[in-house]
Prior knowledge:
The complex is a heterodimer.
Chain A: E1 3-4, E2 8-21, E3 28-30, E4 33-61, E5 68-85, E6 90-105, E7 108-125, E8 128-136, E9 139-145, E10 151-165, E11 169-179, E12 182-186
Antiparallel strand pairs in A: 1-12, 2-4, 3-4, 4-10, 4-11, 5-8, 5-9, 5-11, 5-12, 6-7, 6-10
Chain B: H1 16-47, H2 57-71
Amino acid sequence: MPYVVPNIPYSFGSRAGATSVNGTLNPEQDGPISRVGGSIWAYPPLGTITVTTSWGFVVGQAPSTASALIVAARGRTTENGAAYNWGGGYSAANSSIALTAEEFVNGKFTRSTTTSLPIMHIWTAVIGAQFHAHEAWPTHTLLMGVGGGAVYRCWVTANQWAMCQGIPAYAASRLFFDFYPVFYSWI
Amino acid sequence: MPTNEGTPEWDLEDTTAIWERNVEERRRKLEAELEVNARLNTGLAQAAGLTRSKLPPKLAREMEQIIERTFNVDPPPISAD
C-alpha cells in the first residue's frame, strides 16, 4: 500500500499578547485530499503566536530487510502574509511545511526525524509594509534510516508563526497545504 | 481511492507532549527575538524623529483596508490541483 490518506488529526498553538486565529486550526479532509494550516494574526501593541497543524498515519512495522523509509507529500500551498510597522517596532510572519517520522520500539517512542520546507518568511521594522500572496505546488520528501521490527508513524505538518510590536503593527501568516494521499516505501 | 483500511492497529506512545513542548519553546524564542528587534528599531525610529503622528491618515486607512481585505476571507475550497 504505497499511498495512504492520513487519519490522525492534530493541532496545537501557543500565544502571548494580542493575537487571533481566523477560522479553525482543525485539520480537514475532503475525500482523498487532506489540509493542514490556518490563518493567524498578531496585533499591536504586542503579540506572538505560533501554531502547528498536522495529519498523521501509522506506516507500520519495518521489514527486517529494510534500511530506510521514504515518504513524500505532494500538493498545493495557498499562502498569504503581512508585516506592517510605522514609527518603530518590528513585525514578522513565517510558514513552513514539514514531514516527521517517529520510531517506536515495543510501543515506546525512541527517536524522530523531521525535514522542513520553508514557504514564507517576511518581516519589517520601523517603517514598512510587506504583503505576500502566492500559490505553489511543492513535493516534500523525507528519508529516515530504519531498524527492522520498529514501528513508524509519520506526520505532515504546517508550522506557522506571527509576531509584532509597535503602534501600529500587524503580522499575519495564512497557509493552507492541500495534499494528495501520502506516498511511502521501505527501501 | 487509497485509504487506511487494512492498516494494523498499533499501540504507540502518545508523543503530543513532545510536540507541545516544541511549540512552547518556539514561542519563547520568538518572544526573545521580538524583544531585541522591537526595542532596537523603536530606538532607531525615535532617534530619527519618527512618530505615529507623521503617518498620513489616508495611508493608514489604506493599509488597514488591505489587511482586512486580504485576511478576512474564507479559506479556499480544498483542492490539491
